[in-house]
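JOB MANIFEST
job_type = single_chain_structure
chain_count = 1
residues = 195
[input]
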Amino acid sequence: MTPADLSKLQQTLCYEFKNSEILAESLRHSSFVNENLELDVQDNERLEFLGDAVLNLVVGHILMMRNPELKEGDLSKMRAGLVNESQLASTAVYLDGGFDAAFKIIERCFSALFDAVAVSAENQDYKSQFQELVQIKHREMPVYTVIHESGPDHNKTFRVRLEVGKIQAEGAGKSKKAAEQNAARKALELLKSDD
């Protein structure tokens, strides 16, 4: 990459490197280094190794802060879904500016993904919570039935009925899964109000 390319990348990252060689190294693939031995430069494989650790640490930290109610297994699944081993920029920043600098960049770059995962975990939680409680109280599994579909194929709305024992609840959503989650949320409120 040219110095202009490196400068543009730093602007994109909103981080200016003290040592631009770290950034350049993070971008060098081993095939380039092997084809250009006369340059006597390092490839990015060692940084990639460190990058996985840095990314796992920061993403894990943020997920724990944002989701204090989730268990380790759920946090691990969420982290695995978010971490991408090609995120070498965060490693270069970590080496150049330390943990806080890497943390800020990863948090900013992943903020939309963290928000999406939080919504997904929140929705998933209703169904799981309801199923756990109802199995303890009623020893039955809830049954979800699609009772109505409306709208064109590209923009359908589903209505689902949940039934278990004497509990019935209905929920709507843009997918069957979302409608089931909505019904589970309502059924969970009914189940808790019976206590």
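[summary]
The chain is about 65% helix and 10% strand.
The helical segments are 3-13, 20-26, 30-35, 45-66, 72-82, 88-97, 99-138, 176-193.
exit_status = 0
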